[in-house]
Amino acid sequence: MLAGLGASVIGAAGGCATEKPTLILPTGPGVLSSDFSSTRPRPAGQKPVNTLTTAPIEKVRVAVIGLSRGMTHVHTCLGIEFAEVVAVCDLRDDRAQKAAADVEKKYGKRPAVYSGTENIWEQMAARDDIDAVYIATPWNWHVPMGLGAMSHGKHAFIEVAAALTIDDCWKLVDASERLQRHCVMLENCCYGENELFVLNLARQGVFGELTHAECAYIHDLRSMLFSLGTEGDWRRNFHWEYNGNLYPTHGLGPVAQYLGVGRGDQFKHIVSMSSPEMSLTHFRDTTKPNGGRHANEKYICGDMNTSLIKTELGRTIMVQHDVVSPRPYSRINCLYGTEAVFFDYPARFSVNRPKEYGLDANDTEDWLSDKDLQTMRDKFTHPLWKKLQERAKGGGHGGMDFVMSWRLLDCIRRGATPDSVVYDAAAWSSIIETSVHSVANNSALVNIPDFTRGLWKTMTPLGIAEA
Ligand SMILES: NC(=O)c1ccc[n+]([C@@H]2O[C@H](COP(=O)([O-])OP(=O)(O)OC[C@H]3O[C@@H](n4cnc5c(N)ncnc54)[C@H](O)[C@@H]3O)[C@@H](O)[C@H]2O)c1
Question: Which of 129, 159, 186 is the last residue of a domain?
Fold first, then answer.
């Protein structure tokens, strides 16, 4: 925690039976106290979940809360033969009824519908015919709903970011360990075609020793942030409350998996700085959205936030966040090793001794030609992508949403440990609060807790390559 700073409750959609998430709001330069991001001891009676297996089941019975983004999860599950959507929930009855109608059309049977009040999801979570709950609600609801789902014996699949604060990250870790339920963050970008390609290249040793990665969430969301009745209604709040990386996991999740973070390496500390806040204010003032009703809002989140993370093995990761500049989308998605370098947007690759891979290139002076890159794709496209790409076509976000849910539900069906567990959800999400604290303290070094409590030293790298 920062010394001498006031507390601020993130604007929630109202009261909740479960404790609400809070984020200590830095109001100026302060001194980082030693316990803010220290690793907390495992409470007695809790067991690690890194190898948690569960009883195999024929069909995974799912419920979905939050039926905007959550509609993608409903439709994806309807297309997976070993999934069954048994209940849907949204504050808005029209959304819940629409989802229920889509489910009924597919199964000829109506799912249970919960709507109308903000705590009605708790009744749904208490049902005894649900194995896993997808949580696709505004950020402040992720932790109460995740804890609620697990406390009723369900696996919690939580949208990004899983939690906003370090405290809440620990709550998810402790609940998953205490209740022995999976708590998985729905980081779909880990299942993109290029991300799986790079992961496979890294696992096959093509990069040699890994040294550095760069990633980002760069997405011009200016119009959406002022769009009424959408994510903009609540997401813009964060731009006047916090200055840091508000949405780190789409970029960070995949590169953390390349580097084996949590599995042989671990985040150690972060330094972060933000550019001035200009673009959201400029957009608001020049376009006067919604009849000028936002004229008095004072945004503080710098347009571009850049953070550097150091890992226990000494590697470095650059993470950026910018949702307000006028430019095309990028997650950067870059990996450096002693033998090769990959950059995305667009995909570029260079590798030592290209002839050994049957390529036309002679050296690493230029990026590989399209033809050579295709040769590498032919050799190293990830088996999971190869297996599912036809079925994923037309699915959300270029197919990655389908691949993610198929893989996750397949693990649950077989009783296997999912590719990412609560320690990954916590580590990737923890960059929100640690970056805010670093920015507020002249880019001071902030320790990142080890949510695995030392398990990273012996955990084996992700076994995703065996599709
Ligand atoms: N992984 C991705 O690619 C991706 C894409 C979009 C959104 N998201 C994430 O999904 C989540 C939802 O985003 P969105 O764009 O759908 O937001 P949204 O505001 O459009 O929709 C949220 C939905 O949740 C409902 N809701 C709010 N409080 C509720 C409550 N207490 N009980 C039941 N329903 C409630 C709202 O009525 C609304 O229908 C966010 O965490 C966001 O970051 C992820």
Answer: 186
**Ligand 1 mutation target, pool 68, 72, 122, 142, most atoms within 8 A of CB:** 68
pLDDT-flagged residues of the chain (< 50): 1-18, 20-21, 25-31
The pLDDT tens digits of the residues spanning 200-230 come to: 999 999 999 999 999 999 999 999 999 999 9
Share of the chain above pLDDT 90, in %: 89
220 and 361 part of one domain: yes
The number of domains in the chain is 2
- Token representation of residue 400: 């990655």
Q: For the chain, what is the mean pLDDT?
A: 92
Which tens digit of pLDDT belongs to each residue from 234-292?
999 999 999 999 999 999 999 999 999 999 999 999 999 999 999 999 999 999 999 99
Structural domain including 72 reads: 60-186
pLDDT computed for residue 6 by the predictor: 27
Which pLDDT belongs to residue 10?
34
User: Per the domain annotation, does 38 fall within a domain?
Assistant: no
Task: Please check whether residues 301 and 425 belong to one and the same domain.
Answer: yes
Cα 142 to averaged position of ligand 1 atoms, centre (Å): 10
What is the pLDDT at residue 150? Answer: 98
Query: Which pLDDT score is estimated for 395?
Result: 82
Ligand 1, atom 6, residue with closest C-alpha: 69
> Hey, which of 75, 76, 91 would you mutate to test ligand 1's pocket, going by the most ligand atoms within 8 Å of its Cβ?
91
Atom of ligand 1 nearest to the CA of 13: 28
In a domain, 463, yes or no: no
User: Among 430, 26, 14, which residue's Cα sits nearest to residue 242?
Assistant: 26
Q: What confidence score (pLDDT) does residue 37 get?
A: 80
Same domain, 170 and 202: no
- Name every protein residue with a CB atom under 6 angstroms from any ligand 1 atom: 13, 65-69, 89-92, 95, 118, 121, 136-139, 141, 159-160, 186, 188, 230-231, 397
Q: Where among 186, 218, 249 does a domain terminate?
A: 186
* Residue 3 included in any domain: no
430 and 364, same domain (yes or no): yes
Residues 224, 238, single domain; the answer is yes
- Quick one: tokens of 116? 């109308």
Q: In 200-282, which ranges are E strands?
A: 210-218, 267-274
Which residue's C-alpha comes closest to atom 23 of ligand 1? 66
Cβ atoms of 165 and 238 within 8 Å: the answer is no
CA of 153 to the centre of ligand 1 (A): 23
How many whole angstroms from 124 Cα to the centroid of ligand 1?
17
User: What contacts 239, CB < 8 A, 6 or more positions away?
Assistant: 225, 246, 277, 280, 299, 300, 301, 324
Tell whether 359 and 453 lie within a shared domain: yes
Domain assignment of residue 306, yes or no: yes
Q: In angstroms, rounded to a whole number, what is the distance separating the alpha carbons of residues 304 and 284?
A: 17
Beta carbons within 8 Å of 411's beta carbon, 6+ residues apart: 417, 418, 419
**Using CA of residue 349, residue 353, residue 355, residue 358, what is the dihedral sign?**
negative
The pLDDT assigned to 461 comes to 79
